[in-house]
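Example with several molecule types.
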Amino acid sequence: MDTLLAPLSTEWLLELEVFINDWFFVLALAFLAFEMIRYRVFRKLTRTLVADTLTNYVTLALFIGITVLALGAFYVAAFYFVFQFAIFDIEVNWLTVLICIVLADLVYYWEHRFLHRVNLGWATHSVHHSSPFFNISVAYRFGPMDSFWPVFFHLPLVLLGFNPIVVLFAEVIVQVYQTALHTEAVGKLPRPVEAIMNTPSHHRVHHGSNSEYLDKNYGGIFIVWDRMFGTFEEEKEDVTYGLVHPINSVNPLVAFLHGFQRLVADTWRMPGLGNKIRVLVNPPGWQPEDKSETRH
Amino acid sequence: MPTTTQRISAILASAVILTGGAFAASLVPSVKANEKSTVNADLEVTVEGVRNGNGHVIILIMDDADAYNAFDYDAAAGYREIAAAAGGVTATFAGLPTGRYAVLAFHDENGNRDLDMNDTIPGEGYAVSGARDAFDAPTFDRASSDERSRRVQMYYLN
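Resulting structure tokens for the full complex:
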């Protein structure tokens, strides 16, 4: 109990966060090598697959560039600004960090659901879903604004009183956990695990473009949020990965920008200013209900 | 596809979980520094380079910058007189609270319990933790450490 309650320094927590993030990246590369051998064994190792994998890392580099140059500063500024108004006074120790991780996972559920169900979010998050493959490199396939939306969803945790560095640490733990789920090499885990935790099986469903798999399994670490909130789907039929409208390209720039390109095109086509605004905040595929109103 | 009612109740449930979780976290205490300090540990000081066995080696430990700067015996966190022995002596300060301590020592060869001075130069051997050489006068920050086993070097200028 003393270990759980011993005060943690936030500087140390920040170092640990960087350590986990960096070494997980190295482990993921090693796991990718294993997955490539696996593809080879199943005679699925194609040029498109290799090109798509490289594209994933190019989008990662672009994403990191944007985060470092612009969004990172916004993130830190927003967190420390809001932290002044913290509601509760929360100590920093392992127990409160664990609580924060669970809450950050719930917050991530909503962030993720938003990214799928609101076109402004989908424009950036659809990059992650635009790969027709499913291996650990896809976890590193990011869109241009992928570090923008999380700020707003995690600010409530800071406002509630969790230290910004603890929230950042919790975000990274959720992210790293979910990264590990991007694989076809792991089947279903024991039932109690599949019941509570997010697993490769649940996350394959999330990446499916099969109609019954669309907009399902948003959870990060725990799948219980999806079970509670009615967005859970079990993996039954084989998963067809990727988008309902595939990008059919391995060009990194096409992959990185297609979401915004599509959103701009959709908005442009929408009749009337009201609809142009409404399409931004509605789910993908949204159309005005009454097209006749624009004739006036 | 979730209904609007489902959506609203899901958002409300989430808000309750978040607020409740943060409130619960605010009730979690940290083991306070002064509570931790009740778990006292010993501090072992070794003075090296004692040149002979005359008199005593007097060792002071300071947990306070002012006491350290003033060389104030009365404000020392610990005081030991150890019979001098050529080579080195060791003293153990039992059950000290956690914290940073600076070590001061001198070789009281004539037994007057004072560091004799020849003008501004010490006339007896002296030692300060963190000192790099005989003429180094480290600040308390540099002289102090939370390590529980300390070595200091005795210097003689005469």
